[in-house]
Amino acid sequence: MAPYIAGLESRLVAAGYTEQTRRNMLKVVGDVGRWLAAKQLTAADFDESQVGAFVAARAAAGYRQSYFGGYFTPIFAILRDEGVLPPRPVAEAGRRSIGSGCSRRRI
What is the DSSP letter of 61? Predict the structure, then answer.
């Protein structure tokens, strides 16, 4: 995930996210990157279908961090814009994904 951090940070700044929120979101990107590396996966393997597995693995490892659903939305957006992930199918694009909104999961 390291190659996408600078681009993600720039987007978060442009979108008006506070410094603390940006720091928290970038920490999540680091957590995801380490999780992917441990599973021998790449950024191309991380999409909305993997969020549950990521959160469950973190909980199983004893981490108690809260993951706000909105933290994942910009990650998926930059991965799609960079061509790492394919565009979401049109039928799904209008629906709310696990990474949208402001819901949170406490682990």
Answer: T
What pLDDT is attached to residue 95?
A: 54
Domain that residue 86 falls in: 2-106
59-71 pLDDT, tens digit each: 999 998 888 778 8
How much is the pTM? 0.78
The CA distances from residue 71 to 23, 40, 90, in Å, are 11, 23, 22
Question: In degrees, to the nearest 5, what angle opens at C-alpha 71 toward C-alphas 69 and 72?
Answer: 80
Domain count, the chain: 1
Give the residue from 39, 24, 31, 21 showing the smallest Cα distance to 1.
31
For residue 52 the two structure tokens come to 């549950």
Cα–Cα distance between 24 and 93 in angstroms, integer? 26
